[in-house]
Amino acid sequence: MDNLFHQPQGGNEMPRFAGRATMMRLPFIEDLQGLDAAFVGIPLDIGTSQRSGTRYGPRYIRAESVMIRPYNMATGAAPFDSLSVADIGDVPINTYSLLKSVQIIEDYYTGLNSYPLIPLTLGGDHTITLPILRALAKKHGPVGLIHVDAHTDTNDEMFGEKIAHGTTFRRAVEEGLLDLKRVVQIGQRAQGYAAGDFQWGVDQGFRLVQAEQCWHTSLAPLMAEVRQQMGDGPVYLSFDIDSLDPIWAPGTGRRKLAV
């Protein structure tokens, strides 16, 4: 079947403050056949340990995305000219049960495995990554990981719970979801509870690039190294907004001072 390259709705077709709220004003599609990639929202914040509100993340990311245009004038990137991309809506999580929500997310992404598309997820607190990795591992086996975050999210437990936003990658290692030779964590910074707070992942084989190693320098050499490390195997990219200085993203659920 020939792919249909969906284009974002233009500002002269519908005012940017109007119309259906989809990512980048792409079409909302329920039939996933023929898609190369799909935006999926997971409106979950019951796994966070500080501030709630990331349940509204997918909604507001979509709202702000109306100003993103389909061509990058600096790089020449024009993804919608060669890829069929659409918004397929949100995962219907259980807002009263974190464990049930984790299972719902895993089941949803397991269903996506039936299609040759790449899911582009809008969260949602970082708990959502574990069930996504569980589903991806069913199709691909252990995957590489590029994890950009102020924290390592490798706690063993939080308030006695094994599943939470800060335990995601320890569970992923224990369950064999990651290819440990192809894991890099970038942007971890500032304070900890003990000197070895970042060490657990390093001991498993993770590459750790702390935030101060990224300051006042081009990131191009680092990205070249990361691409080489990832190779041609499947890779999951996870970007936590708290990797940014909270002066730029004060609404994050787990602010960490950039000092």
Automatic annotation (TrEMBL):
<keyword id="KW-0464">Manganese</keyword>
<keyword id="KW-0479">Metal-binding</keyword>
<dbReference type="GO" id="GO:0046872">
    <property type="term" value="F:metal ion binding"/>
</dbReference>
<dbReference type="Pfam" id="PF00491">
    <property type="entry name" value="Arginase"/>
</dbReference>
<comment type="similarity">
    <text>Belongs to the arginase family.</text>
</comment>
<keyword id="KW-0378">Hydrolase</keyword>
<dbReference type="InterPro" id="IPR006035">
    <property type="entry name" value="Ureohydrolase"/>
</dbReference>
<dbReference type="InterPro" id="IPR023696">
    <property type="entry name" value="Ureohydrolase_dom_sf"/>
</dbReference>
<feature type="binding site">
    <location>
        <position position="126"/>
    </location>
    <ligand>
        <name>Mn(2+) 2</name>
    </ligand>
</feature>
<feature type="binding site">
    <location>
        <position position="153"/>
    </location>
    <ligand>
        <name>Mn(2+) 1</name>
    </ligand>
</feature>
<feature type="binding site">
    <location>
        <position position="242"/>
    </location>
    <ligand>
        <name>Mn(2+) 1</name>
    </ligand>
</feature>
<feature type="binding site">
    <location>
        <position position="151"/>
    </location>
    <ligand>
        <name>Mn(2+) 1</name>
    </ligand>
</feature>
<protein>
    <submittedName>
        <fullName>Agmatinase</fullName>
        <ecNumber>3.5.3.7</ecNumber>
    </submittedName>
</protein>
<feature type="binding site">
    <location>
        <position position="149"/>
    </location>
    <ligand>
        <name>Mn(2+) 1</name>
    </ligand>
</feature>
<dbReference type="GO" id="GO:0033389">
    <property type="term" value="P:putrescine biosynthetic process from arginine, via agmatine"/>
</dbReference>
<dbReference type="GO" id="GO:0008783">
    <property type="term" value="F:agmatinase activity"/>
</dbReference>
<feature type="binding site">
    <location>
        <position position="240"/>
    </location>
    <ligand>
        <name>Mn(2+) 1</name>
    </ligand>
</feature>
<dbReference type="GO" id="GO:0047971">
    <property type="term" value="F:guanidinobutyrase activity"/>
</dbReference>
